[in-house]
Amino acid sequence: MLSGYQRRFKAVEVLAPSELEAMHQGALEILEAAGAHVRHQRALELLAENGCPVDFDKQMARIPTGLAEDCLDSCPSSYSIRARDAKNDVRVGGDRLLFMQGMGMRYVDPDTWELRSATLREHAEGQIVGDALDSVHVMDACFSFTDIAGVPPVMQQLECLANGLRYSSKAQHHGYMKDTDRFAIKMAQDVGATLNAEIDVAPPVTFGGDAVAAIMRYAELGWGLEACPGGAAGAAAPASLAGAVTQMWAGTIAFVVLAQLVRRGSPVARQLTGTVLHPKWGHPLDGAPESWLLGAMTSQLCLRHGIPVTSPVGFCGQAKMFDYQAAWEKSLGVLFSVMSGSHLHVLHGSHGEELAFSNLLQVLDDDIARAIGRLLDGVEVNDETIAADLVIEQGTAPTSFMGLPHTRDYWMKDRFLPGVADWQSHVEWVKGGKRDLLTRARERVETILATHEPAPLTAEQEGAIDAVLDEARAYYREAGLIGDEQWEPYLEALSLRG
Fold this sequence. Notes:
This protein is α/β, with parallel strands linked by helices. The protein has two domains: 1-379 and 414-498, TIM Barrel; 383-413, no CATH class. Helices cover 47% and strands 14% of the residues. The protein has 18 helices and 21 strands.
C-alpha cells in the first residue's frame, strides 16, 4: 500500500466552533425547508420511504434533520481504493496526505502556449509519467486530458480510463455521464481494482438522473464516492463566502443521505468545489485567496463530521504559461489546503483554469508535492536527534561535525532534494550550460518515457478491457451518441494510439 505523507500537526482552522455550527445548521435548514431537486424516480421513492416529504411532480425532496444527521454519522472516516497492483493500494483519510494527478482539457505547447486536442498516445504518455512519479498516489486517467482528438465525447472517459489501466498500476479516479460508469466499473473489476468516483451536485442542490444512477451503482459496491456540489459565489451561490460554503454543505449532506440510503456505511468524501468570480469579467478565479478560503472552511466542516477531504484547491490558477504566477498560484493554494486538512490532493499536470494538462508540469508539480510532503512529515525529536550528548562530546569551541557517523546518518535522512528545480551553486549552473527550468523538466520527462516501464496487463486483462470498450461502442452507436461521421475518425485515432 502507498502510504503517502503523514501530517504530524493539527490542521489549521479558519472558523470558530460556533461559526461551524451555525453554517451546519444553516445547511440543515436549507434541506428541511427547501429540500433537494432529485431527477430520479427510484431515488425519490427511497427518500420518501425514509421519511422525506417528496413532491414527485416537482422532483423535490425535503430532508429532515434527524435523517441527515443519522446519515452523516454512518459515513466512514476513511476508505480504500484498490489498484490493479496491490502494492499501490491507497487509503484516503486519517492523518495521511495523498496526491492525485490533475485535470485538464487540452495539450499545451510550452513553446507557443497554444492549446490543441491531445492524442490517445499523448494521453498514454501522461499516464506513464504519472506512474513513474513517487508523489503521485492516485491516477486521474479519466480527466488528465478531456479533449482527445478523434474520440467521440461519449467515449472519451472510457478510452482514457482504459489507457490509465494499461499504462499505470496505481489506483484510478473516474466519473460518470451517460452510463459510462457502468462500463468503467466492469473494466476496473476485470483487472481487480476499484474506482474513486467524482459525482457532481448542480447548484443550488440538484441531482441529475445520471449523477443519481452513478451514486447508486458505486454505493452498492461500497466504492469511494466524492460529492462535488458546485457553486460560484455570487453566481450560482450566495456572494458571501459563508453563504456559498453553507449552500454547498447542504449539497454534500444531501449527497451523503442518498448514498447511505442505498447502502449504509458507503464511503463518501467531499471534493472541495466552489470558487469566486472576477469582480470585473465574471470568470472563475481558482487561484484567488478567497477560493482557498472556501476550501479551508469546507475542510473544517468535513473534518468536524469525519468526512474525508479531496481537494483541487491550487491545482491550477489563471496563469497562461509555466511561469512565476503559475508557481505561486499552485504552491500557495496547495499548501494552504493541505495545512487545513485535505487528505487526497489534486495537483500534478493541471494548467490554466483547467484548460490544459502537461507532462512538464507533472514533473514540476512533483517538486511541489514532495516539498509539501516533507513539510508535513515534520521533525523527529528524540535523544538521538536532539544530539546534546554529541555537542557535549565535541565541545563548544569551534569544531566541525562533517565527518561524524551522526552526520552521515542524517545528512540525507532529514533533507529534501528536488527532482527538477536547480539547487546547484551559481558556478555549477554556469558550467552546466545555464539550463532553465523547462529544459530540465523536458529532460526528466524524456528520461521517464525512455526508461519507465509500467507493470503490464495480462493478456486476459487486456482482452477484458477491449471487450468492455467494444460493448460500450456498440451501446453508444445504437443510442445515436456515436454518429457515422464520428466513426472513421475514431477508428483512426485508435489505430494511432501506439
